[in-house]
Amino acid sequence: MYQAHFGFSELPFSLTPNTDLFHALPPHLEAIQTTLAALEMGEGIIQISGEVGTGKTLVCRMLINQLPEHFDLAYLPTPAANGHELRLALARELNVLADGDNTTLTEHLQQALIARKAKGRSVVVLLDEAQALPDDALEVIRLLGNLETEQEKLLQIVLLGQPELDLRLAQHHMRQFQQRITFRACLRPLDLAETISYIEFRLTCAGCSRSLFELAQYRDIWKASRGIPRLINQLCHKALIAACSSNTPSVEREDILNAVKDTLGARQPRWTFPVLWGWH
Fold first, then answer.
1. Global pTM?
2. Is the pLDDT confidence value at 1 over 80?
């Protein structure tokens, strides 16, 4: 593709979350620092929310990499279909005997957590795509979050989800759960300066030693993507393909337009050019 054309050592805008390309911009850094601080303070349930494409999975991986050594991790990337499945998944992650009814399974989990706490270990559960959890699974999370000794919580839980989770928790019957969330962090979209920094950081990491975009093009990408990193990646990736196809040394504004027109979810610009590259 365009890797050789621009002299990249790797593709700078892959959609696969890559911690080697993590750029510590304020929205993501604040979420990571808030969560780690809350975990160190022993808080029970913590929530990280963000729109689709704002970087929740990458933040989750950075949290996993940065967890202090005294934490044992249970990572549940796929939402459970019900409360019982959630208990089973947690039991498997913690190597706990997963048999019996819900009451027995909860007792097994509590005994295992007490044993780990006695050894100076803290257990943290990372639950991704939390907005897709059914109500009974959320109720199980609330009950598990109540497990504690006289001094501290036995289990700490981090929920990562889309804004739909906030809408669900705002319902009257979810008020008990909502009150259990002690810290919240929100992954907002990037502003223009952060978008420029994000793109240039990734280009530098990929071995780029020259400027491929002008300021006006950065602004066009930011407006079209609305500052959402996943859309920024898609637009830059397709613009570089277009520039390579045209055999030009840098990205032209027409390349940005082609990328925007081909990207679902991108905001269409007011300015127009003829489509030069046959994606349609």
1. 0.88
2. no
